[in-house]
Amino acid sequence: QVQLAEFGGGLVQPGGSLRLSCVVSGGTFTPWRMGWFRQAPGKDRQYVASITWIGGSTYYDDLVKGRFTISKDNAKRMLWLQMNNLRPDDTGVYYCGQRPSIEVNEFHFGGPGTQVTVSS
Question: What is the pLDDT of residue 77?
């Protein structure tokens, strides 16, 4: 059974940077796409960015485009999110998820998430 675990969050001042990591363990892992999502207090989980597992095409929400970069290493089964020029509204719990195939129109989650707090 595939398991996801996120880490790398923390407290950072506005304008600062963080790099989040997601490690995949267990099972056979061949998703169509991997993504990062975040959930602010009192709000629904929100899409941030995604990347196709084969090919590496990247997609970003307009709120983070130009500031965040998603990347991966298939052999290591790792996913990263480099976040620059962070703003207070980037605060939330960040989750990585997998979309198993193009036919499945949803991401599956499983990790506990990692807290990102942007505050002075």
Answer: 95
Summarised one tens digit per residue, pLDDT across range 23-34 is 999 888 889 999
CA distances to 28, 33, 113 from 37, rounded to whole Å, are 23, 13, 9
**Percentage, residues of the chain above pLDDT 90:** 87
Residues 6+ apart with CB under 8 A from 102: 32
Strands 114-118 and 10-12: parallel
